[in-house]
Amino acid sequence: MEQNPKVRRQAARWLAGVFVVLLAFGSAGLVLADDFSDGAAYFRNGQYELAFAAYLRAAKAGHAGAQNNVGNMCAEGLGVAKNEKEALGWFKKSAGQGFVLAQRNMGKMYDEGRGVKKDETKALAWFKKAGAQGDALSQFMAGLTYARGEGIKRDYTQARFWFTQAADRGNVNAMYSLGMLCEAGLGKPQDIDEALMWYEKAAARKHKQAAARIDALRAGGAAAAVKPIKELTQ
């Protein structure tokens, strides 16, 4: 059945409009990618001012990775005057898009009190958010925050949970920390065999303190165990 000529013309105009919109969005995406790639290239070459300018263009257009990188450069004063509050703002924009490195950076800023008042509760929330996406360093930091109990209630059970998540993803410091918890009997009864297992995993990755604990425990057995473990509890 032949279409009405008027309907065909309307359909053609509509499709043309859609094509223009798609082309515009596609071009914008290419520009974003180009700015981000340029920023990365400039950064690798140590051309920090040019890198910052390129990243900033992409960041203002909504590129989450660029927003995180602008935050990093503001935080460290690379290519731009150091401004930790400005850095926090960019990290927040990126983290709001679900960018895991920015979520980790938000945790670090609150943990260290950079650009914002130190707040371990908020730091922990960001570390857990990034950790839920599989970021091993954030998982380790969540465990460490629970173990230290600074600004929050100390919880060795939660510390073990997050350290285990991080260790399973290859974080050597989490392996060592699990060894210390097992050795000291924090969160559950002391288990020297399990402590040795975690220390051995860490030592296999060149962790010197883990290797030292292995030597001490093998030489003195359970009597050589340290309790409490100051590195975690202070």
From TrEMBL:
Coiled coil: none
Pfam families, per database record: Sel1
Transmembrane region(s): none
InterPro entries registered for this protein in UniProt: Sel1-like, Sel1_AlgK, TPR-like_helical_dom_sf
Gene3D superfamilies in the cross-refs: Tetratricopeptide repeat domain
Record-given protein name: Sel1 repeat family protein
Naturally occurring in which organism (per UniProt): Oxalobacter vibrioformis
